[in-house]
Amino acid sequence: MIHWVEDDQPRSARWRSESGNAAPKRVVIADDRMTADTAYRLACEGTGMLWRGDFQNARQLLQALARRAEPKTEKRGKPRQPPASPKDAFNLHRQAQSQRARTLGMLLLPFDADYSIPLRRAPDVQLACNEAYGQPSEPFVASLRELLGLIGAHEWRKKGVEIPALGDRIHPHYGVYSPVRGEYIGLVAQAPLPSTKLAFDIGTGTGVLAALLAKRGVARVIATDMDPRALTCARENLARLDADDKVTLMQTDLFPEGRAPLVICNPPWVPARPSSPIEHAVYDPESRMLRGFLGGLAAHLEPGGEGWLILSDLAEHLGLRSRAELIEAIDAGGLKVLEKIDIRPQHPKASDPSDPLHAARAAELTSLWRLAAR
């Protein structure tokens, strides 16, 4: 619950945060009269501001807070010291991201039980909230920043992501990793299939790789995921692509029972702690999923079968995991490398010198490791 005082009366409501943030301990009422400087000071102190003014003015205030939360430029004659290592650069970047998210998350909105927002000029966000939160049940308070994330995810879901290898679009749901890094899909589209009888897709997410395998002629695909949101998302995408008759979805951790001639996995690429539940598709603490896949792969391969590991080497360039550690995990799993197929990323950050992690991104390769049991 979140608590505040309004009109000299104690009030409370349910607190919602998909990012897992705790409710602010102190909350004040804010409206169109609040200046950006005052709001920024309160936000930095950890004070939540429950908005009672015009919705569009709240959006403008959030933009003003975002500008104030940008890193300050160094004074002339005092150049900024570069981080001592790529790992330090990554940790500082994550720390700055986390602090910025906390600060911007202090501008709060009231929601009625039907997901309507009782503010002037508030948009209709009921569909976006339904997609992320499920059926409405009671009034609550959430941050404006989170709402804008929900709206953005809703637009992505409507528009979809063009997948040239499929000749169609994938529509990601809120909290499910969007396949915007198309180079890894291209690797799967071109690698030689060891069999078209059966494949396991471990951690299917949106279902994009399961759909691609079905399109390539694999007769049966068993696609697994732990996240109910991902399974719902994959089910809708596979039905839209007319691939649901070839793909069976299963909620399980890593492998289904049995063996297959092809087992494919695209685990989170960065071994770091996620700062929110929806970051689990990007960050894999201590490489848990990667090590689980490599440790159990041999036992789930048919004789002569292949395991396809799709992995970026960004973690290596950031100093978070060495190539030696990866090779050691492959060897410990009783596996051997048949081939490694590489491709360079095409996303904008790979060529953006202003990105804090530009050096690592510029050197990054995405690889499909073709593995087999020894």
UniProtKB/TrEMBL annotation:
Residues 195-272 form the Methyltransferase small domain. InterPro entries: DNA_methylase_N6_adenine_CS, N5-glutamine_MTase, SAM-dependent_MTases_sf, Small_mtfrase_dom. Gene3D superfamilies: Vaccinia Virus protein VP39. One of its GO terms (molecular function) is nucleic acid binding. Residues 1-17, 67-76 have a biased composition (Basic and acidic residues). Keywords: Methyltransferase, S-adenosyl-L-methionine, Transferase. One of its GO terms (biological process) is methylation. Residues 1-21, 67-95 are annotated as: Disordered. This is Methyltransferase domain protein. It comes from Collimonas arenae.
